[in-house]
Specification:
The structure is a single chain. This protein is an alpha+beta fold and about 425 residues long. About 55% of the residues lie in helices and about 15% in strands. It is built from 14 helices and ten strands. Strands 2-3-8-5-7-6 form a six-stranded mixed beta barrel. A hairpin with a 2-residue loop joins strand 6 and strand 7. Helix 2 packs antiparallel against helix 10, helix 10 packs parallel to helix 13 and helix 12 runs antiparallel to helix 13. It starts with a helix and ends with a helix.
């Protein structure tokens, strides 16, 4: 048995040697045939890489909202053909007393915070930043949201309860308002209010969903309440509720539904005038969308690979014809059919693997270049590398099987006489 295995390995090694030799002797033909399959594999790997990168970047943006958070809002995040925006617009915004009720009654949450969002223009001396996201938060927000600071700190409890004129700004706001000075303890204006900078968020980079803290100004909720009414259409108020450790978000959602219905005195059959949102409402449709895009990528790349596969098969038929005399001599000297078969299959697979390897190098360089000049991260995962090489091997086997089979079935006498 061991002798048979050793002989088989030796013969396969010889097949590999002959295949390499044949490719070296026909470099131009090998290059042209590899080029065709390279285009097809490139289409698939590039589409898979871009789709995975886009999905990861969007999911990263979604996760930055908080995977363990429930957002109580008047607007639902799920959209459909029956989205009745006029009904949702007339709903009341979440209120401070409702946030306090959740903190008092909830046993499944780690805390709740009231958050008010609106757009403002910020000014400091001759510098200004327009269309800036202003976020008013209560003191509890510091316990449910992870924040990284480049300078300064979060609000203390007295600042939030008293609505003192203090602010934390994002890195882009700091760059726009204070390009040449340290922003800490500087005072700037928003909507007529003079506020002092007590902290600067660490730079996050661009977010595909626009929720980066780089372009954010954060102030106490009670400061915002002095200048606009909570129920104003110009502001969007939410209550962010964080699930306690090891508590599923779905379970917390049901508890919050009961607390909100009780607080708003809704009868058992009455329709809810609030929405309970979570990040899965965003990520689930995204996954479905990317599944369709990935399928489209396989279809487009598949057509290109079919063309490339025919090119490989055609080259292999030519290779068999050119080496017919050599095949006859090999068989006359005792070469088995599977040896001839494996010789041409290895050659076909090597051509396709060469194409796949070239694609991986090209996509790697594209990924590196994109990551160097953009905040959008391009991921070439090991999964996609393995997919590219696997597809290369499969195309090589399919394209080479018929020419290799024909070569293995040649009669040695007729093959030697062939010209």
């Amino acid at each position: 048995m061991f002798r048979t295995v050793r002989i088989t390995i030796n013969q396969l090694s010889e097949s590999f040697f002959f295949a390499v030799q044949a490719l070296q002797q026909n470099k131009t033909r090998a290059f042209l045939s590899t080029l065709g399959i390279t285009i097809g594999i490139f289409c698939i790997i590039m589409v898979l890489t871009l789709v995975e990168s886009l999905e990861r970047n969007i999911q990263k943006s979604v996760d930055s909202f908080g995977k363990d958070l429930v957002f109580i809002d008047k607007w639902p995040w799920s959209f459909g053909s029956d989205y009745k925006w006029w009904k949702y617009m007339n709903r009341p915004n979440p209120r401070m007393d409702e946030m306090k009720a959740i903190n008092e009654r909830s046993v499944l949450s780690a805390g709740a915070a009231l958050v008010i969002n609106m757009n403002v223009t910020a000014k400091y001396e001759s510098n200004s930043a327009q269309g800036v996201s202003l976020q008013g938060v209560t003191y509890e927000y510091g316990r449910i949201k992870k924040m990284d600071f480049a300078q300064g700190r979060f609000f203390n409890e007295n600042e939030t309860k008293s609505g003192l004129p203090v602010a934390i700004i994002g890195s882009e706001i700091a760059k726009a308002l204070f390009p040449s000075v340290n922003p800490l303890d500087k005072t700037f204006s928003i909507r007529g209010a003079r506020v002092k900078v007590v902290g600067v968020f660490a730079k996050e980079g661009e977010s595909l969903l626009g929720n980066s803290m780089d372009n954010l100004i954060m102030v106490p909720t009670n400061l915002v309440a002095r200048y606009i009414r909570i129920n104003s259409d110009r502001a969007n108020a939410q209550i962010h509720v964080k699930a306690a450790d090891n508590i599923p978000v779905d379970l917390l959602e049901e508890e919050l539904r009961g607390i909100m219905r009780s607080k708003r005195k809704l009868s058992p059959g009455a329709e809810e005038n609030f929405a309970l949102n979570k990040t899965t409402l965003i990520s689930a449709p995204i996954k479905q969308l990317f599944s369709v895009v990935t399928l489209a990528g396989w279809v487009i790349g598949g057509f290109a690979m079919i063309v490339g596969g025919f090119g490989i098969a055609n080259i292999m038929f030519v290779s068999v014809k050119e080496r017919t005399n050599q095949i006859g001599i090999q068989k006359a000297l005792g070469a088995k059919n599977y040896f001839i078969l494996s010789e041409f299959l290895v050659e076909s697979v090597m051509l396709c693997i060469a194409g796949g390897s070239i694609v991986i190098v090209i996509v790697s360089l594209i990924s590196y270049g994109a990551n160097s000049v953009s905040d959008f991260e391009v991921y070439l995962s090991m999964k996609n590398i393995a997919t590219g090489l696997t597809v290369s091997v499969i195309i090589g086997l399919i394209s080479g099987i018929l020419p290799a089979y024909n070569a293995s079935r040649l009669n040695p006498v007729d093959a030697i006489r062939a010209k």
